[in-house]
Amino acid sequence: MSRPIEQRTTRSTRQRALVLILLAALIVVGAGGYLWSLAPAAPGQNTAKSIIRVEPGASLSDIAALLKSHGCLRSVLAFKLHAVVTGQASELESGTYEVSPAMFAPQLIAMLAAGRQATATVTIPEGFTLAQIAQRLAKAGLADEQQFRAAATAQAVADILPVNLPEEVRNAEGYLFPETYRFTLGTAPEKLVARMIGEVEKRFITQLWEPLPSGQRWASLHQTVTLASLVEEEAQLDSERALIAGVLKNRLERGMRLECDATVQYALGEHRRRLTRPDLQVDSPYNTYRHAGLPPGPISCPGLDCLRAALKPAQTQYLFYVARGDGSHIFSRTYQEHLAAIRQVGEQSER
Fold first, then answer.
1. Of all residues in the chain, what percent carry a pLDDT higher than 70?
2. 94-108 as b/e: b if 16+ CB within 10 A
């Protein structure tokens, strides 16, 4: 005896409802599992970050494996699937990136697709030497100290700037512009050097050196930069930079030795609070107590103000100066005046 039509319909309806419920449950579970697979592998603000390098030509699988090796993915498959579904799989860029297990997989994909590489900001103060710059970059995680110094060659300067360097000059001392830079982590040392040298071209040569008629330049570009480095080390007050440049220029024109303590410090390779008589006799072409004229090259990397002062030294009759304790100087025209100024400074320091 067959069942009533109403009963068969009710049962069929219940079965379809059950199927729909099961499908909905599977969808919910599947979606939840998918979202779980895209969630951070290790949630938390204190999760350590790391730097990865995506090489040119790396495939989606290569990138996923790299992220997985740094603990940044819960599921390689989910990462790849999301990149494909969102149309970003072919847009992931090579470069250096800062990643963290606390990042969602879609965040990682978006970062790689936008090419938002990891960067670091570093400030190079005026008057820093090449050695100090290399140390500062190494501390910022931007370059190996020795590799940077090896890349900062005289040839690197000559490749960018219109300058003739003496044979004695073997590195880029003086031609790395003091500035605050933002570099991409993993940038080759040669490119770091080129950027800093390029700033000298942009900020000094293009804006100040080239617009000045050659007839108004008292020296070559290299001599000007070298003098600027001496001014950078000798002058502490803005108001005295051009004046000190004028004194040094006057001594050069008269064939007098410059006798700059800063050049002796550079020749010694270290800063000493007081120089002794043996220090002043150090055998180096950079020792301006023993050798007349400018040293072979700069003794530090001068800033724009000192470059400007060296380009246009003050017109003055002064030939000497002696430092006071407050950073200023007493300027003198004759050696007798200079001796009197030295005595004056000595008496003031004893009070």
1. 88
2. ebebbbbbbbbbeeb
